[in-house]
Design a protein that fits this description.
Strand content: 15-25%
Organism: Roseateles agri
Pfam families: ABC_tran (PF00005)
Keywords: ATP-binding, Cell membrane, Membrane, Nucleotide-binding, Translocase, Transport
Bound molecules: adenosine-5'-triphosphate
Structural class: alpha/beta
GO molecular function, one term: ATP binding
Radius of gyration: 18 Å
Number of helices: 7
Shape: globular
CATH architecture of the largest domain: 3-Layer(aba) Sandwich
Protein name: ABC transporter ATP-binding protein
Strand order of the largest sheet: 6-7-8-3-9-10
Helix content: 25-40%
Distance between the termini: 33 Å
Largest sheet: 6 strands, mixed
Length: about 260
């Protein structure tokens, strides 16, 4: 298991993206007819803001992330980055999924370097790979192959591969979903620390109410499919946050109420 203490090299502050989601609705065409998935979503992600999306399984969270990433066009409405329409994927918007999807025959370092290759960055700039590895605390593991890593380390490699590009927006779809609960708690803090240092805008999808509230400044609660916004929880607590705080418990209660769940347990 890797030591969770992060090194702190100097990092250029990245200008976080301003993401505008205006009246976005979306459906999928199925053999039996259209399947409505998103219903008039309005959301403004300010530069450098950390927002989490919370909602029932299958409500449309990943679909919304895919639209923001530019992986598919929205059925209706508009999505913009810094005022310009999002029409295709762009290296300034990086997606991290639940599965780290590393190349098994490439070392940790070479997997991270792929993030740069995807942008055609010159070999001379590969020092950025070392910096990205340091940012996720993996400098000492650069030569290992993916099968030699724990789940948490593999996900750190995926994060380094994303961060090597200094993204303006980091889109995360259940990035910690496959980790054991202790590693997950550690990585929640690490991700927040990475975000605080680099100041990219962050959009996180999670099923975990505590995770959303612990990490994000703002939590958007979605309804059952087709997803519409049923509430928004602002967490003003400064970072680093205390997990057991009374304010977090209060916000959790409110989140569960918005999700239609019994909040007494
Ligand atoms: N490419 C697709 N074609 C048809 N239907 C799709 C497609 N992608 C997603 N869906 C459907 O759209 C709905 C929303 O899916 P989505 O993955 O966005 O939900 P989610 O909230 O991320 O789910 P979960 O929390 O379980 O990961 C689901 O009913 C899913 O079956």
């Amino acid at each position: 298991m890797v030591n969770a203490v992060l090194e702190a090299p100097r990092v250029e502050p990245a200008a976080g993206a301003h993401i505008g989601i205006q009246k976005v609705s979306h459906h999928f065409d199925l053999p039996d007819g259209p399947l409505p998935v998103l219903d008039a979503i309005d959301l403004d992600l300010k530069p450098g803001e950390f927002v989490a999306l919370l909602g029932p399984s299958g409500c449309g969270k990943s679909t919304l992330l895919r639209l923001v990433a530019g992986l598919e066009p929205a059925g209706r409405g508009t999505l913009t980055q810094d005022g310009k329409p999002i029409t295709r994927p762009d290296p300034s918007r990086i997606v991290v999924f639940q599965d780290p999807t590393l190349y098994p025959w490439r070392s940790v370092r070479d997997n991270v370097a792929l993030g740069l290759q995807a942008r055609g960055v010159l070999a001379a700039q590969r020092g950025r790979v070392d910096e990205a590895l340091a940012r996720v605390g993996l400098s000492a593991y650069a030569k290992l192959l993916p099968h030699q890593l724990s789940g948490g380390m593999a996900q750190r490699v995926a994060l380094a591969r994303a961060l090597v590009n200094d993204p303006a927006l980091l889109v995360m779809d259940e990035p910690l979903g496959k980790l054991d609960s202790l590693t997950r708690l550690t990585m929640q803090s690490e991700l927040v620390a990475l975000w605080q240092r680099a100041r990219f805008s962050a959009l996180l999808v999670t099923h975990d109410v505590e995770e959303a509230l612990f990490m994000a400044q703002r939590v958007i609660v979605l309804s059952e499919r087709p997803a519409r916004i049923v509430g928004e929880l602002v967490n003003p607590l400064p970072y680093p946050r205390q997990r057991g705080s009374a304010q977090l418990a209060e916000l959790r209660h409110e989140a569960l109420r918005l999700l239609g769940l019994d909040a007494t347990w």
